[in-house]
Amino acid sequence: MTTLDEPLKKVLGDKTAKALDKHLDLRTVGDLVYHFPRRYDERGEHTDIRSLSVGEDVTVLGQVRRATTRPMRQRSGKLLEVLVEDGTGGVLTLTFFNQAWRERDLRPGRWGLFAGKVTEFRGKRQLNGPDYVLLGDEGEASEEIEEFAGALIPVYPAAGAVPTWTIARCVRVVLDTLSPVDDPLPATVRAARNLGPLDTALREIHRPASREDLARAKRRLKWDEAFAVQLTLVQRKLRATALPARPRPATPDGLLSAFDGRLPYELTEGQRVVGAEIAADLATTHPMHRLLQGEVGSGKTVCALRAMLQVVDAGGQATLLAPTEVLAAQHHRGISALLGPLGRPGELDGDPAGTRVALVTGSLGAAARRAAAAEVSSGAAGIVIGTHALLYEGVEFNDLGLVVVDEQHRFGVEQRDALRAKADQPPHTLVMTATPIPRTVAMTVYGDLEVSTLSQLPVGRSPIASHVVPAADKPAFLDRAWRRLREEVEAGHQAYVVCPRIGDGTASDTEEPPPDDDGTARRPPLAVTEVAPLLADGPLHGLRIGVLHGRLPADEKDGVMRSFAAGDLDVLVATTVVEVGVDVPNATVMIVLDADRFGVSQLHQLRGRVGRGSAAGLCLLVTEAAEASAARERLDAVASTTDGFKLAELDLEQRREGDVLGATQSGRRSHLRLLSLLKDEKLIGEARQEAIDLVSGDPELTAHPALARSIALLVDEERAEYLEKG
After folding, report:
1. Which of 33, 337, 551, 608 has the most CB atoms less than 10 A away?
2. What is the DSSP pairing of strand 317-322 with strand 400-405?
3. C-alpha angle with apex 165: 161 to 166, nearest 5 degrees?
4. Least confident of 103-107, 306-310, 361-365, 606-610
5. Which residues are bridge partners to 387 per DSSP?
6. Is 682 helix (H, G, I), strand (E, B) or coil?
7. Cα–Cα distances in Å, from 228 out to 438, 523, 671?
8. Is the predicted pLDDT of residue 724 greater than 60, yes or no?
9. Would you state the pLDDT for residue 138?
10. Do 341 and 350 meet the contact criterion of CB atoms below 8 Å apart?
11. Residues annotated as region Disordered (predicted)?
């Protein structure tokens, strides 16, 4: 008998074990047992051969209809052609060169699994020299096909050198020798949630006798995945609450009150509620860990600034970390403008009761950096804005009380250690994102944070209309788009033109672009440095055009943004460097070129840069994607709604679960295979509640050592760090 820790070579032999290790990264019995089938075929069930895509590696369940051998025309030898059908009228041709002897096996009526790459010849789909295994006829008993004896046939994630039936055979050998697997899940949880034993689930996921057995096995194994992640997050959350932090309670008649009194508008109800949540967190004796999510323009920055002022009132300092220098400079200008005299103490028009706002970025000159560092270390600058670089640039805080992290750049282990080194005690943390997060993602990826949501837009924000411009099908539509932009400029407004590439000839710009959805080659994405002169000489001739991208020197980037914000430029041709934080209320139109090269959430954030004033916004998504393609459907969905949460779910549907859960981040194999963040919301919620109940009474799971070990297998150290960073 074997255990899950047993090396595969002891069970399967050296040759097979080496192939599984080399091609599928499977080394132990546990690795193989947790290598779950991708799907299940059923004899007589339709495979739908007509849906196969050229270039796709497939495993098809089909029945031989006809096999014929004929001499080849262009060279000596014989060609065996086998027609396989799926029962719906879909027919696939299998071709074998100089292997006429296979005709004896591939007799009409035989069922089999056929694996290979789909090609097309004279309009017909075919597999050239496919691997195959034939299923036994009635009454036929062969060890070779025993793994397919059940009604449901497992089809595994496979490799060319290790086809699915080889994996199935290996799984059968392993399961036949596997000792009963101990169940780490507490019996009380199993009973409360009606979950079957782990040993049964692991066997039935590979060899289900019925769809009902398969559903039970999947539910149990999904539960294990969800429970492991939730236990990890709940434990981390509990440990964070045990850390000491200096409370920063609200102070009456301080900077915050003065700031609220000079705001030219009323806070929304949502901003007031979120402000109260944050204020309460800041007053506690453990570090705040809160995620603030809200649509572009929902007023997150004002909420963050009010939190920073509360900390300053309590004698501390606050820092806002931005992902780019452009955004850091934008925040510095915006926050300074909001504070007015309160941000200029010591100056002629400044308020002596205010606090300085320092900007610290890696590209500051030596003198400016020394001046900023002096303001930060002395405590004169209560608010410090910069990129993550400021953590390592020799900047010392007088009393760091709050860290605000903008745009999903959640501080990870290294950043947290650097911050702790700059504070006597762990600072409070507020993470902001303009990308709406579906509830299950919030629970699963951000589960160690409290979540606040701003769902209202401030009064005065204008609606944004979005349209897809099919440049390849209807070039006249693109001409109209440029005319529409000119009309906005003539009306006194400004515009963005966004491109997916910089275009300076660096390695990232010369890489082969990925193929289209249908597998055809693509031209390189349009580039800022190439598009800007074409527009200046063509449809936008005579307009004042600026260029902005991430490789410009910092002072040049800042100068371009200042010119655009001041109205000295009509059009800004830019990369996604304008995606977050850039606030120019006079900008009313955005044209996104090669829009199909951007993600759903990214497009939603980009268009949030327009319509920020009293005039309505317009976003035109230019694409050459074909009308029925997945890329075009994605753009149509973006154009059809401004509901960020709907788009976030669409984005999640189109991404692999592993991308969300971090399975692909390290390139290593992951055991998180079955859980779907969209389909399993109820199960994830139940797992979270059980995790809270268990950890609240036993924080380190000392009474459940087997459960603690199983979590370490499912959520390894790298994954735990990914969950922490987000």
Report:
1. 608
2. parallel
3. 50
4. 361-365
5. 322
6. helix
7. 20, 44, 11
8. no
9. 42
10. yes
11. 502-523
Angle at 720 between CA 719 and CA 725, to 5 degrees: 95
What CA–CA distance (Å, rounded) separates 659 from 599? 14
- Per-residue burial over 607-617, b if 16 or more Cβ lie within 10 Å, else e, is bbbbbbbebeb
- Long-range CB pairs of 437-441, under 8 A, 24+ apart, other chains included: 437/291, 437/293, 437/648, 438/645, 438/648, 438/649, 438/652, 438/677, 438/678, 439/681, 440/677, 440/678, 440/680, 440/681, 440/684, 441/648, 441/652, 441/660, 441/677
Q: Which of 91-95, 452-456, 592-596, 615-619 has the lowest mean pLDDT?
A: 452-456
Rounded Cα gap, residues 104 and 476, in angstroms? 60
Q: For residue 408, give the DSSP letter.
A: T
Torsion of CA 289, 437, 665, 721, to 10 degrees: 10
| Segment 138-161, tens digit of pLDDT | 434 344 444 444 467 888 888 777
Give the mean pLDDT of 115-133: 82
Which H or E run contains 306?
Answer: helix 300-313
**pLDDT tens per residue, range 522-543:** 688 999 999 999 999 999 999 9
* 3 state SS of 521: coil
CB 425 within 8 A of CB 345: no
CB atoms within 10 A of CB 453: 18
**What beta strand segments (E) does 578-683 contain?**
587-592, 617-623
- 3-23 residues labelled b (16+ CB within 10 A) or e (exposed): ebebebbebbeeebbebbbee
**How do beta strands 131-134 and 289-294 pair?**
unpaired
Q: What is the pTM of this model?
A: 0.66
Q: Copy the structure tokens of residue 118.
A: 């789909």
pLDDT at position 320, please? 93
* DSSP string of 445-497, one letter each residue: TSTTSEEEEE-PPPTTPPPEEEEEEETTT-HHHHHHHHHHHHHHHHTT-EEEE
Tokens coding 660: 């969300």
Question: The tokens of 44 are what?
Answer: 């007589």
For residue 534, which amino acid is it?
L
Contacts of 641 (CB under 8 A, 6+ apart): 647
The H or E element spanning position 677 is none
Quote the CA–CA distance of 660 and 10 in Å, as a whole number. Answer: 36
To 10 degrees, the CA torsion angle through 392, 393, 395, 400? Answer: -30
Q: What is the tens place of the pLDDT at every residue in 33-87?
A: 999 998 887 755 555 677 777 777 777 878 899 999 988 877 788 889 999 987 7
Residue 308 has pLDDT above 70, yes or no: yes
Side-chain half-sphere exposure of 133, counting CA atoms within 13 A: 22
Q: What is the mean pLDDT of residues 383-401?
A: 84
Tell me which residue of 545, 565, 498, 561 sits closest to 526, measured CA to CA. Answer: 498
Write the single-letter amino acid at 225.
E
Going by C-beta distance under 8 Å and a sequence separation of 6 or more, which residues neighbour residue 119? Answer: 54, 55, 125, 126, 127, 128
Residues 6+ away with beta carbon under 8 Å from 77: 71, 97, 98
Q: How far apart are CA 635 and CA 631, in angstroms?
A: 6
**Is the per-residue pLDDT at 213 higher than 80?**
yes
Instruction: Tell me the C-alpha distance between 608 and 592, whole Å.
Output: 12
- How far apart CA 655 and CA 35 sit, in angstroms, is 21
Q: Map tokens 């799926």 to a residue.
A: 86
